[in-house]
Design goal:
Number of strands: 9
Strand content: 25-35%
Distance between the termini: 37 Å
Number of helices: 1
Order of helices and strands: EEEEEEEEHE
Shape: globular
Helix content: under 10%
Mean pLDDT: 93
Length: 159
């Protein structure tokens, strides 16, 4: 994957970068996606995607993947500037729970604090991808089109 440097900014009104994700947005709470907002989207962006990945999860899979995928959401029009809490619009991919849509943080008991990387990718095309793609299937198709990206990292430790 090439570098996609940009001034893209991703934020949430419910947690700050490297701050704790409220229980409501976890597998121990209501398990709904947190609201997200962004600005400074590259002018070339025609669509967007949001990914949530936990690299701290003690999981390694064939093909070199690691961690745990909590959310893959794509086919978001480039004109959209935010996602509401419990977002249901756009196209959901498959998470590592084996379901489509968002699955909130829920690290193994006693495993300590995990970091959840919410990535926003700006794409230079409307790919109109089918629902249910895994993160890796999505990235194989989207990577040549990425013109900007940034992340917001939240933390969560299971009680």
């Amino acid at each position: 994957m090439g570098f996609a440097l940009s001034d893209l900014q991703l934020t949430s009104p419910v947690f700050v970068h490297l701050g704790a994700i409220p229980n409501k947005y976890t597998g121990q709470g209501q398990d709904v996606s947190p609201p997200l907002a962004w600005r400074n989207v590259p002018a070339a962006a025609r669509s967007l995607a949001v990914i949530c990945h936990d690299p701290d999860a003690p999981l390694v899979a064939s093909g070199g993947s690691y961690g745990f995928v909590h959310w893959v959401l794509y086919n978001i029009p480039g004109s959209v500037a935010a996602l509401p809490e419990a977002a249901r619009d756009h196209t959901a991919g498959k998470n590592d729970f084996g379901k489509t849509g968002y699955g909130g943080p829920m690290p193994p008991p006693g495993h300590g604090k995990h970091h959840y990387y919410f990535w926003l990718l700006a794409l230079n095309d409307e790919l109109n991808l089918p629902a249910g793609l895994t993160l890796w299937e999505f990235l194989r198709r989207a990577e040549p089109h990425v013109v900007g990206m940034n992340r917001l990292i939240g933390t969560y430790e299971r009680s």
